[in-house]
Amino acid sequence: MSAWSNGSSNVSYTSFLLVGFPGLQESRALLVLPFLSLYLVILSANALVIHTVVAQRSLQQPMYLLIALLLAVSISVATTMMPAMMFSFSTRFNSISLPRCLLQMFCIYFLIVFDCNILLVMALDRYVAICYPLRYPKIVTEQLLAGLLGVAAARSTCIVAPVVGLASKVRFCRSDIIHHFACEHMALMKLSCGDISLNKTVGLTVRIFNRVLDMLLLGASYSRIIHAAFRISSGRARSKALNTCGFHLLVIFTIYSSTISSSIVYRVARTASQDVHNLLSAFYLLLPCLVNPIIYGARTKEIRQHLATLFQREQLPAPPEKPQSLPSQGELPA
């Protein structure tokens, strides 16, 4: 791999080889089919729910538009890494330059953090809808929604940019082989030959601060929402509000539990093989992409009804053509 040097002791690789599952080096081509199947399921499931939300006028509301955006982010996360990963499995062409590696790292982490920030916006939307239902249309406008999403994107950039920026200043001289299927931060840092204590401290601090702040905001929001829902006099409206909160909390639990458990296992199970760590990384990256459309498609009544209507329309047989009646003798041409 290419490298620049300034003396024999000052070498830094500028391109790397991504080796996703080093323990399966000889049979990595067998991984193409399961990962391709998983990728196609993620694409089709998320795209189907997004199409349903966009195509139906009755679903042109903030909550459903946020669901569609969340699922679009899921497609982006999978697309950022899975096509290149499958291509490397099938062709063994797995070279990546340092700028491309850093760009992929930024995109993956930005989308993960942006995913969590969308959940915060959804929590705020549900808080206003349940606690102030009469004022909801005046408060949650298109301008407010666009502004909140802009803040979410800016916050995601501010969280991820320092980590990637510090990684770009590190010298990588231990090896040019990244034992991962994507440019994951710690996998790249293992190749460094200088002091990376600042990188580790910043990365861990940002992750902990971000997670704790998110959990506090989500906890405060949904505790108020549940408290307000139990005060609704109508049993049907109360059930609908609690059901909405239920599947939102299920998505939140799926996303945060996968990321937190992966971080804990990565630091505790140091004796586990690299393949196990990579499998856990794939699990926490792809599980929300696979589960979210199932939760929102099956648990959201309005989306579920439109999906059922769509499938019924596809399965209905075409009406038989009426047989053309033969012309009577008087109608026959002369």
TrEMBL record:
PROSITE patterns named in the record: G_PROTEIN_RECEP_F1_1 (PS00237), G_PROTEIN_RECEP_F1_2 (PS50262)
What membrane topology is annotated for this entry?
Answer: Multi-pass membrane protein
Coiled coil ranges: none
Mainly localized where?
membrane
| InterPro entries, per the entry | GPCR_Rhodpsn (IPR000276), GPCR_Rhodpsn_7TM (IPR017452), Olfact_rcpt (IPR000725), OR51/52/56-like (IPR050402)
- Any Pfam family the entry gives: 7tm_4
Q: Which domain of life is it from?
A: Eukaryota
Role:
Putative odorant or sperm cell receptor.
Q: Where in the cell is it found?
A: Cell membrane
Q: Which UniProt keywords apply?
A: Cell membrane, G-protein coupled receptor, Membrane, Olfaction, Receptor, Sensory transduction, Transducer, Transmembrane, Transmembrane helix
Task: Locate the transmembrane regions by residue number.
Answer: 30-51, 63-89, 101-124, 144-167, 241-259, 279-298
List the taxonomic lineage. Answer: Eukaryota, Metazoa, Chordata, Craniata, Vertebrata
Give all residue intervals belonging to the G-protein coupled receptors family 1 profile domain: 45-296
The record's similarity note reads:
Belongs to the G-protein coupled receptor 1 family.
Protein name as it appears in the record: Olfactory receptor
Presence of keyword Transmembrane: yes
Q: Name one GO molecular function term.
A: olfactory receptor activity
Q: Which organism is it from?
A: Gulo gulo
Any single Gene Ontology cellular-component annotation: plasma membrane
